[in-house]
Write a structure and sequence with these properties.
de novo design (two linked rop proteins); about 80% helix
Length: about 120
């Protein structure tokens, strides 16, 4: 397996994480320890789990971390929906970020399938 830094899915997940962190900087201060914190942890979990999983022996172990990353995408989507509902995020930006997440989730799912195939 190549270095995790070379994986397109990792690179795009880092960009998504930076984008979402920038969005949360506009959230109200009273959300700092609630929605802001939870959203930042969820989106950061994606590239972090890809990196962590790549350090384990074998594709089966790596696949387990990729599954966790896929769950973090869902959590991020849900939390962004909450932010939009609460008026902290405009609908257009929400749709744009959600589309990026869905595209990245497809790429991550392909990585998972390749790992599962390699694991036998």
């Amino acid at each position: 397996m190549s270095r995790y830094e070379d994986l397109i899915v990792y690179q795009l997940a880092r960009k998504l994480s930076a984008r979402v962190r920038a969005i949360t900087k506009r959230f109200p201060r009273d959300e700092r320890f609630e929605l802001t914190s939870q959203l930042r942890r969820a989106v950061r979990s994606v590239p972090t789990n890809i990196a962590e999983g790549s350090g384990h022996q074998g594709p089966r172990a790596f696949a387990r971390y990729v599954r966790i990353a896929l769950g973090s995408f869902r959590e991020t989507e849900s939390l962004l929906g909450d932010a939009c509902d609460d008026g902290y995020l405009q609908e257009e930006e929400h749709v744009s970020v959600r589309d990026d997440i869905r595209h990245l989730r497809i790429l991550t799912f392909r990585l998972l399938r390749a790992l599962e195939k390699a694991a036998g």
